Amino acid sequence: MPKNWNAFSSRAFTGRLAHRAVQAGWRLAQRAGAVTAEHPGRYRFGSLGHGTKLAFPQGTVFGEPWIHLGAHCIVAEQVTLTAGLMPDLDLGTEPILRIGDGVVLGRGSHVIADTTVTIGSDCYFGPYVYVTSTNHSYDDPHQPIGKQWPRMEPVEIGPGCWIGTGAVILPGARIGRNVVVAAGAVVRGEVPDRSVVAGAPARVVRSWDEENGWQPPLRTPAPAPIPEGVTPEQLLALAGLEELEDGVQPGASA
């Protein structure tokens, strides 16, 4: 018969202490291991903007002198950033991987820049996005594909884009401004500004123009913009009025 677990036993108390110690130690490691311009650790990036942070633990990072990160970027845990085919290469005087201001790279994403990759400002990546400027060729059907010399083409992602979870951006892709790439999409070639692409290979499923707006039309109405001059206090008061109209007291849980 299994023994009853006594929540007040010394064993249970020791377990709780160990759990708290591990959690506290991990939080300390995350804070101490984060990479910033003030605390770059062993990394020597070509540039690392103010307010940018690479969360701990970092993924594979090499070729840092040819990696330029803008200001106020968030690089989540286990993100790989590489410039060049392998570490310790001399890649010349120009940056290979450029990341603009205010970019967010989701957990586990990879940006592989064997030739130039440019990510515009204010782009948001979901988790596990894969961007690469290199792909293996398949010219010789008798040789292992992994042993055939790769082909490289620059990649450009315009400012203001949203790249969904698990998307793959292939060599030669040129994504315009304010583009949504759906989760799991595989993108190659040109993508026009202000469009939505989905699928593998990705294709345009929605686009916007000055005359007709979104085509096909959005299924849900766009949110009303906040009028200019409205203060945070007024917004909180308005939220309280809406709760009262719904029969819910402000601050009460549903």
What keywords describe this structure?
254 residues, alpha/beta, UDP N-Acetylglucosamine Acyltransferase, domain 1, 7-stranded parallel β-sheet, 6-stranded parallel β-sheet, 2 helices, 15% helix
Largest sheet descriptor? 7 strands, parallel
Shape: globular
Q: Predict the CATH topology.
A: UDP N-Acetylglucosamine Acyltransferase, domain 1
* Quantity of strands, as a count: 24
Going by CATH, the architecture would be 3 Solenoid
* Residue runs with pLDDT of under 50 for 5 or more positions: 248-254
Oligomer: single chain
Query: Can you identify the CATH superfamily?
Result: Hexapeptide repeat proteins
CATH class categorisation: Mainly Beta
Mean pLDDT: 88
Question: In which order are the strands of the major sheet placed?
Answer: 1-4-7-10-15-18-21
Strand content: 25-35%
Question: What is the CA-atom radius of gyration, in angstroms?
Answer: 24 Å
Count of spatially separate domains: 1
Structural class: alpha/beta
Q: Number of helical runs? A: 2
Helix content: 10-25%
The string of secondary-structure elements, in order, is: HEEEEEEEEEEEEEEEEEEEEEEEEH
Family: Belongs to the transferase hexapeptide repeat family.
Protein name: Acyltransferase
EC number: 2.3.1.-
Keywords: Acyltransferase, Repeat, Transferase
